[in-house]
Amino acid sequence: MNELLAAYRYTSNNWAQIEASQQCGCCNCVELFKPDEIVGWTGLTMDNMNDSAAVAQQTAMCPRCGSEAVLGDACGFAINANFLARMNEAWFQRTLIRRPSVKT
Ligand SMILES: [Zn+2]
Fold first, then answer.
1. How many helices (H) and strands (E) does the chain have?
2. What is the DSSP secondary-structure string of 48-64?
3. Is 100 or 27 the better-scoring residue by pLDDT?
């Protein structure tokens, strides 16, 4: 469980991590995709969009389901279907955290 806990924090403020990754996946829909498929990010406003630190703190949105539950392999964990399934089970099928809201 500890590695899952460690991996979960990489689902937020992960712009730099995603940029450095070769493979990404979503803990919500358990889909695998490439970093360049991610087109939606949260965290920037009109006030900080020119702030490079704020840019690097953006959070990726899944290109498949829109959840802020994206992990990239640059976080140090192998991003594959098995790992994502374990993350999904730990967080989304139990009640450890609230389910992230899906933005449409
Ligand atoms: Zn997803």
1. 4, 5
2. TTT-HHHHHT-EEE-TT
3. 27
Q: How far is the CA of 31 from the centre of ligand 1 (A)?
A: 6
Q: What is the dihedral of CA 46, 104, 62, 2, to 10 degrees?
A: 90
How many angstroms is it from 76 CA to the middle of ligand 1?
Answer: 20
**Residue 101: inside a domain, yes or no?**
no
pTM, full prediction: 0.84
Distance (Å) from CA 83 to ligand 1 centroid: 14
Asked if residue 33 is part of any domain, the answer here is yes
How many whole angstroms from 104 Cα to the centroid of ligand 1? 12
